[in-house]
Write a structure and sequence with these properties.
rod-shaped, single chain, mainly alpha
Amino acid sequence: MGTKYKHIICLTWGYRFPYSDSDSCVLFAVYILKAIRNTIEYSKIFILKAILELIVIKLSKALRKIFHKKIVEISSY
């Protein structure tokens, strides 16, 4: 994680730590960045899961149509 983002988070949140306590601010910023990264990771997982479910639904409908046609053809003999 870049130092630039840590300092931006420290300034954005309005914490005015003394220089000796800057580690606390950086640690706080690291926790914020990790939380943001985890949220993005989880949202990617949910999006991928939704896409996979959509693919499975489309495939199952297509297979159902194919098998239905085959069954109708076989039963017509």
